[in-house]
């Protein structure tokens, strides 16, 4: 009968071997899938904005990141979309000759729209966010400034990241402000980055007034 | 009753539980399924991949060229130490252009399904390389595309609706049947779709805007939203703003959970195929929204199974 002929013969050595191979392949696949899923969980836990425990960072960093990162699978997927805060501002990258007004050099994304514009905005956001990361601070700004030398015909430029905060409900749109500014120049054969702090960010120096100073101020008035 | 007696009585139940988990694992990952849903995933993904690839085209030399804004030495210092890319060895404009255009050609081949067993892993590898060359430029759509491309690389994505199939039929080859690799690829797509939903939800719920119901306003009022037409409506009605915000989180919760249950899977998957692109448009990330819909596609569509194959929803 055709049906019975399809049944595996329990004592057929070739079929037993094939079944063993199939079992072995399934065991290997199970291990690989389990490893992949563990990598996925650790990636989500280890790439959160909130940070990660030392244990997760170490296990992921030593065992999983070396193969997940090149495959672009070491991802946290923490797509918050918006919190409505300054970190969700619209960013633009402006590079001009040093001393010139903002907007007189090159500005990205400029008139570009869509995903292409989004990439420029991400670059601008990364430049301003790097300030909080000691290992990365100034890296992208210096490279972007250096990359714009030829385009601007100078070796002394100002890199600015302009930020337009999200519009609150019932409020008018705000004007863009400089979230980051640095002068990038070639001097003495080396590339220099001179960070320009916004005045508002510099803390005032407060000292208690001495009696003599108070008297002098009164006389001056 | 002694402790031993209790342990003996509970052992079979525990063993049965473990066996049930094992059987479910086997059924989920290793029951051969029709590869047709994977073919649709391949076609839609390749089209979206071409759109994302094209978004690099105008600036690839400005970023990655020898005198670009993102020289390789800087990127090496900036990115994860484990990161590497084929572009790392492309030190001339021509080499960058060749690699970049090769990626586009590979995506085209993936779209038409020619040489898919080689093209699918190559597409995933080239895309990962492009993203590793400039990690600071990558966004949510790029991440999710990479995930789907690796799933396609695992499964037999070219068995249906492809030039490969056409050539096989022409040469009189047998029609492809169900495959375990299709089950693994489709299973991974479902796991990733659910996991991305959970991760996005957790990230969103850390911000007040998703609790006070104003997140939809901030998204729509952004100059990059493709649904800015609803801003006047949202401005008039706070309740509507709250409703849209909570609908986004509700979809994420429902998608993460309901795809795992047969009675709710198709309904939520169909809702997600419509809702994810709308969320993408609202957030100014239309390609991300479209790729998220791809995760729901296999469960959403009524694929005609090949003869002798049970529909995926019945099998799994």
Task: State which percent range the strand residues of chain A make up.
Answer: 15-25%
Determine the mean pLDDT of chain A. 84
If you average the pLDDT of chain B, what whole number results? 92
Percent range for helical residues of chain B?
A: over 70%
Low-confidence stretches of chain A: 1-12
User: Helix count of chain A, per DSSP?
Assistant: 7
Oligomer: heterodimer
C-alpha Rg of chain B (nearest Å): 23 Å
* Main structural class of chain B: mainly alpha
Kindly report how far apart the N and C termini of chain A lie: 117 Å
Radius of gyration of chain A over alpha carbons?
Answer: 30 Å
Task: Give me the count of strands of chain B.
Answer: 0
Largest sheet of chain B: none
Query: What is the ordering of alpha helices and beta strands of chain A?
Result: HHHEEHHHEEEH
Described by strand count, sense and barrel closure, the largest sheet of chain A is: 5 strands, antiparallel
Kindly estimate the percentage of residues of chain B that lie in beta strands according to DSSP: under 5%
What distance separates the N and C termini of chain B? 42 Å
Can you tell me about this structure?
The complex is a heterodimer of chains A (221) and B (316). By secondary structure, chain A is of the alpha+beta class. Helices cover 42% and strands 17% of the residues of chain A. Chain A has seven helices and five strands. Chain A has a five-stranded antiparallel β-sheet with strand order 2-1-3-4-5, with helices on one face. In chain A, a hairpin with a 2-residue loop joins strand 4 and strand 5. Mean pLDDT of chain A is 84; it is low at 1-12. Chain B has 316 residues and is mainly α. Chain B has one domain. Chain B has helices at 3-30, 36-57, 60-64, 72-78, 93-112, 116-133, 140-154, 163-170, 180-204, 208-211, 215-221, 231-236, 238-258, 262-282, 286-300, 312-315. In chain B, helix 9 (180-204) runs antiparallel to helix 13 and helix 13 (238-258) packs across helix 14. Chain B is globular. Residues 306-316 of chain B have low confidence and may be disordered. Classes of the chains: A alpha+beta (221), B mainly alpha (316). Chains A and B meet through helix 2, helix 3, helix 4 and helix 5 of A and helix 1, helix 2, helix 4, helix 6 and helix 7 of B.
